[in-house]
Design goal:
- The protein is an alpha/beta fold.
- It has three domains: 85 residues, SH3 type barrels (Roll); 159 residues, P-loop containing nucleotide triphosphate hydrolases (Rossmann fold, 3-Layer(aba) Sandwich); 61 residues, Ribonucleotide Reductase Protein R1, domain 1.
- Helices cover 30% and strands 22% of the residues.
- It has twelve helices and 13 strands.
- α4 packs across α8 and α8 crosses α9.
- The radius of gyration is 22 Å and the shape is globular.
Length: 331
């Protein structure tokens, strides 16, 4: 393996991307990975390349597809201008805040997502389910990282609440300031592997990244004492290199995650309700007052909970509304 191939492999390059290059592109372009997205520019790294470039592909309109963090981009050897974005393995996206007509790309080509939650008042099962739906919908492995375990004597209660979402879900409990505990996360961060961090502000994502990198280069802010919530500390979407290999994506905290076209993810996270609904007398059962509703029967029997049912219906309704055409959403 030559130096160029070694560099690309360490960045996450594999056959999925190599197989997309034409003969001309293989000799006339450089493959680079997007490390960070700034306003009007993207930071890219490749074999012998480390620079800022325009996010707009040559000849494309500004409204066309543009790169996001984690993307692989081809740039011309002579001009170093973007040629095209390579087809992604996966893409995390959401409805753009303040404009439901647009979608905002979050990150691409992720191998594992760490869903970060903290052992304090900000802990929310509903929010964890939203993040898990997002991960399941794009087919990315999810691991829940429960932080700030030093703030409670009942860590097991938080773990039990997460297990109620999905019994086999991988969970790691850590104090983000203790490197030996955070080191357990390295199992998902081998050479060329990319992990994304998702979680609301103040749960300790930046502290975790600093511990994994053995650095304090990412700013952290204290949590407000009166409500246990934090301020946003990550303002630029960026990939961070681990000393032992792999990459971390520390993303801005997203307290309100608007799902769109996530029906498959919802069905997977709430598969217990989907399976129960299959036994309803009517195929279009709304699980209200219809006779022969298997979902209501399961809730009455205690095998399903009303609280989880309400969250399932709320997520399904939100997904349906967000996936609807613009004119219907306006109405």
């Amino acid at each position: 393996m030559n130096a160029t191939d070694q560099t690309l492999r360490e960045l996450g390059w594999d056959d999925h991307f190599a197989g997309q290059l034409s003969a001309a592109e293989a000799t006339q372009t450089h493959a680079v990975r997007v490390m960070a997205v700034h306003r009007g520019q993207v930071e890219v790294v490749g074999a012998g390349v480390d620079r800022l470039v325009s996010p707009y592909v040559q000849g494309a309109r500004p409204t066309d597809d543009h790169p996001t963090v984690g993307d692989w981009l081809l740039i011309a050897d002579d001009t170093l201008l973007p040629v095209r974005v390579l087809a992604r393995k996966n893409l995390f996206k959401r409805r753009a805040p303040g404009d439901g007509r647009k979608e905002q790309m979050i990150a691409a080509n992720v191998d594992t997502v760490f869903i970060v939650a903290s052992c304090n008042q900000d802990f929310s099962v509903a929010r964890l389910e939203r993040y898990l739906v997002l991960a399941r919908d794009v087919g990315v492995e999810a691991v829940v990282v429960l932080t700030k375990i030093d703030l409670t004597e009942t860590v097991a209660d938080f773990v039990q609440a997460i297990r109620a979402i999905e019994p086999d879900l991988a969970i790691e409990t850590v104090d983000g300031r203790v490197p030996a505990q955070v080191a357990r996360l390295a199992a998902w961060c081998g050479i060329g592997r990319t992990v994304a961090f998702l979680g609301s502000s103040g749960v300790g994502k930046s502290t975790l990244v600093n511990s994994l990198r053995g650095s304090d280069s990412i700013a952290t802010q204290a949590v407000r004492a009166h409500d246990d919530t934090g301020r946003h500390t990550t303002t630029v979407r960026r990939m961070h290199r681990l000393d032992h290999g792999g990459w971390l994506l520390d993303l801005p905290g997203m307290r309100e995650l608007q799902l769109s076209e996530a029906a498959e993810g919802i069905a997977e996270v709430f598969d217990d309700f989907v399976l129960a609904a299959a036994d309803c007398r009517f195929s279009n059962c709304a699980h209200g007052n219809e006779p022969g509703c298997a979902v209501r029967a399961a809730i009455a029997a205690g095998t399903l909970t009303r609280e989880r049912f309400d969250r399932w219906r709320l997520l399904a309704a939100a997904e349906s509304a967000n996936a609807a055409p613009v004119y219907k959403r306006r109405r």
